[in-house]
Amino acid sequence: MTERMMIGMALMFFLALAVMSTSSVAGNWKDSFDDICSKSQGADSLSVKELSSLIERSNKLMPEIQAADDPSKKIYLQRLKKCKALFEFVIESKKGPEK
């Protein structure tokens, strides 16, 4: 194997590694999004502590989505905001009317 071929193979390896790492980062926020918003279906059965944790996770995820290069990020942001709003509503309804 010539030195030129080895350099070419090394460059291809690093390029493939870079592509895989950027796609895994994009997948991470989508996985987090799916995990958070999947809980909205049974939000009324979650504890206030669990709901608060989901709201906190939503707050941390929003900047990640905003920084993403995904063309559908606006849709994900709106959906995440709606999931968060639902969790906040359920917390308020569990607390009951304030006196």
Itemize the secondary structure elements and their pairings:
Layout: H1 3-38, H2 48-67, H3 73-95
How would you describe what is shown here?
There is one protein chain. This protein has helices spanning 3-38, 48-67, 73-95. With 99 residues, the protein is mainly alpha-helical. It has a domain at 27-95. Helix 1 packs antiparallel against helix 2.
Which term fits the overall shape?
A: elongated
N-to-C series of helices and strands? HHH
User: How does the major sheet shape up?
Assistant: none
Q: Structural class of the helix and strand makeup?
A: mainly alpha
Oligomer status: single chain
What is the helix fraction of residues, given as a range? over 70%
Distance between the termini: 81 Å
- What is the average of the pLDDT values? 84
What is the compact description of this entry?
Helix content is 80%, strand content 0%. With 99 residues, it is mainly alpha-helical.
Name the features.
elongated, 99 residues, 3 helices, mainly alpha
